[in-house]
Each structure stands twice: as C-alpha cells, then as structure tokens.
Amino acid sequence: MEIEVDNIEYNPGKETMWWGTLGTVRPFQPFHPDVDAHQIYVALDNKTVDVMTLIRILINRTNAQRQDIAVAYNDLAQKDLNAALKKGLSGPVQELLLALMMTPAQFDAHRLRHSMEGLGTDEEALLEVLCTRSPDQLRDITVAYKEAYGRYLENDLISETSKDFSKLVLAILKKEELNTPGEIDYQLIDQDVKSLKDAVSGKKPDSAPWIQVLTSRDSDHLNRVISRLEDLKGEPVDKTIQNHFSGDFRLGLRTLVHSIQNTPLYLAQRLQACMKKNAVVRGIMVGRSEEDLLWVRVQFRKLTNVSLYSTIQKEFKGDLQLALLALCRSEDIW
User: From CA 298, how far away is CA 265, in angstroms rounded?
Assistant: First the structure.
C-alpha cells in the first residue's frame, strides 16, 4: 500500500505527544482535521466500509492529530468516532484502529487491564508495558487506568501478583530515578554492584537489593552497574538471574534487565516470539509507532535476518496486513 510521507514536518511547540525521533508515524502536514473527518465520515457511511481510506488517514496521522480528527468527526456527524468504527468494522483491523484512537496512556492502561482480565494473568504482557515506560509515562498510565476502569492500577497489580514478583511490579510502577541523570557517580556504581553481588552470594538469594537498585536508577547508570557485575562474576547478568531466582520474579528481573540494556532489542525479540499473537504485535506496533519503531525494525532485522516488513507480509493477510505494514512504514534492505 502506498504510504503518504510527503510534506511532513515536526513543530514541537504545536502538539503534545510522547515524541521520539525514531518513530515511524510523524506529524502529517498540511493537516486539516475537518477534511480528514469528512473523508472518514464518507468511508464509514457507505454500505461497504472503505477500510483503505480509514487506514490511509488514521495510520498516517499522529495520536495528537487523531484526537483532533475525533473532535472534528463528532462536530460533523454528531456521533462518536470510536462508536462509528466499532459499528463499521470488526475483527483485528477494528481492534487496531480503535487502539490508534486511544491516547498513549489510555492504550497502555488498556493493555495492562487486558493482561489481568479473565483466568490467570499474562505476566509477559504486564511486564512489557511496565518495564518499557518511563516514570512520567507510568504516572500518566496510572491516571488513565483509573479514568477508564474506575479501578486503582496498584490494587489490581497486588491482587494479580504475589510475593517478590508483586514487590517488583509495584516498585517498577512507582519507580523514581534517584541518581542524577547525566552524571557518572562511581561511588554509587560501586555500591550498587556490591549490593547486587552480595545479594546472590549467600545460600539464599536476597531479592530486595535487586528490586531496589533496578527500579531506582536511570538506564545509563544501570548499564554501567550491570557491566561491572558481569565482569566481577564472569557471566552475563541474565545467567546470574537464572541461577539464583525462580518463577515470575525471575521472569520480571530478566525482562527489566533486558529492557534496561536495550529496549528495542527486547521488543524485537518479543515480536519474533509472538508474531502469531495479534495482541502482542498490535501492542508493540501501535505503542512504539511514535517513539522508536524504526530502531525496533533495525533490531528485528539483525535478530532474524529478515525485515519486520517482510515478516508482516508473510504472517498476516487482508486489511490487518495493510494496516500493520502502514505502521511499519517501509522495508529494511541492507
């Protein structure tokens, strides 16, 4: 499908978004929400819904622009755009376009709620959201969760997790980077390395230092700590975690460390492992589309020797394939 990429420029003073320089979706210019709303109205008003027009417009606009389109559509049609999309569409493409219409915080809150609904908790989905978001984003997600579901995210996490794993996810949710960003504090690095090393040196490992250190420092500091720890122990930190911890807590520590070391690589690995799962692919493609999906694409290609674009072409069909390809943006050839 032809993707519109011309006349795109970014005016940081004009829109508020979680903006990253490595996103595949960028502000569309010239942007006229009333024109987009009218085209969407026509696309949805036909007996046969024009899905291609919906994909072309909604995926080629930023989230902030989509919110403006939703307002313009409401003014034009006197009805809610989300309700119209639900009525006119069905299946995976409906789920994808509705995900695009949520704000980033709403979408992550939706993913967290979905991971805890029903029988059993999807710990991997839960951890993916929590471990790859900044403290500010997590605060926004917490507010959005309460607004959307009338429930407290912290309480739901407590009820759906247990023991050390519960302590870890709550610490991630409330994480504050206590070291000074941009400054290399060698004394604190030494202190943190010692804390982590001592915690796994006895007969019974102590989870508390691992939780405390990994959820209260920025990634630059933690990468130095992890590198020093690996040098001292003569093994990757992933192996240290595997050898000394177990169950959901081990999964949580491994996910947190992988996201600290290289978030795009972690997400590429998750895409590779879960390409058959629509919810996972949708979550990453939508959730990272304005942040670092270009870098996820690079890591996916290195990991699999096949581009993400080609993989989507192979694994998906129909309207969902077209929508995912539009989010992916283009092929990676090198």
Answer: 9
Tell me the backbone φ, ψ of residue 204, rounded to 5 degrees. -115, 120
Residue 83, classified by CB atoms within 10 Å of its CB into exposed (0-12), middle (13-18) or buried (19+), is exposed
Using DSSP, state whether 146 is helix, strand or coil: helix
The pTM for the full model equals: 0.90
Determine the pLDDT at residue 331: 85
Q: Cβ-count burial of 24 within 10 angstroms (0-12 exposed, 13-18 middle, 19+ buried)?
A: buried
| Length of the chain as a residue count | 334
Coil, strand or helix at 299: helix
* Distance of alpha carbon 308 from alpha carbon 328, whole angstroms: 8
- Letter string b/e over residues 293-317, b meaning 16 or more CB atoms within 10 A of that residue's CB: bbbbbbbbbeebeebbbbbbeeebe
3-class SS letters over 217-279? CCHHHHHHHHHHHHHHHCCCHHHHHHHHCCHHHHHHHHHHHHHHHHHHHHHHHHHHHCCCCHH
CA distance 256 to 248: 12
Residue with tokens 């696309």: 43
Please report, as a single letter, which amino acid is at residue 20: G
CA distance 164 to 214: 14
pLDDT of amino acid 196:
98
Q: Do the Cβ atoms of 239 and 252 come closer than 8 Å?
A: no
For the chain, give the percent of residues with pLDDT over 90: 87
Nearest Cα to Cα of residue 214 among 182, 244, 247, 259 = 259
The Cα-based distances of 61 to 51, 97, 121, 308, 332 in angstroms read: 16, 12, 33, 21, 22
pLDDT at 2 over 80: no
Running DSSP on this structure, what letter comes out for residue 182? Answer: T
Check: CB of residue 145 under 8 Å from CB of residue 157.
no
Identify the three-state secondary structure at position 8: strand
DSSP 8-state secondary structure symbol assigned to residue 181: T
- Residue keyed to tokens 């819904």: 49
